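Support reply, case 0932

Customer input (verbatim):
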Amino acid sequence: MSDSVLRLERLIAAAPERVFEWWTDPELLARWFGPDGYAVPSYALDVQPGGRWHTALRSPAGTLVTVRGVYRAIEPPRRLVFTWAWDQDDGSPGPETEVTVTFETAPGGTKLVLLQQPFEDRKSRDNHRAGWSSSFDRLERSIAGKTI
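Our regenerated output:
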């Protein structure tokens, strides 16, 4: 896979409808979104094509970062497509990527596949891989009703 593309796959022990809900219900998303140790102090999701979304993340050290984008496709419970850009220090958007998340029925639950692209470089892609992987761990624990 190219340095500009991130592809992650995870089996989540829940039906696609349930996993999709955890991605599109603002209250549920705030419970798992972000790497371990991060909190979500503010968020807004307008889950419709052309709708805007943003999520602020607070690191364990107290640093606040915001990511935002626009929904391009909403196909419950199969697929979400949205843009992704971190706010820069001056408030302007950083480099934009597109995220496609698919939810497919699989033995044991839902096969979740995330595709994010294009990244400017391998380092950015790998940072996102670590962040998404940790977030998916939190998603699995949240859906299972375990403390995160």
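We compared this against your earlier run and they match. Two observations from our side: Residues 6-143 form a domain with the Alpha-D-Glucose-1,6-Bisphosphate; Chain A, domain 4 fold (CATH 3.30.530.20). The chain has three helices and seven strands. Please reopen the case if you see a mismatch on your end.
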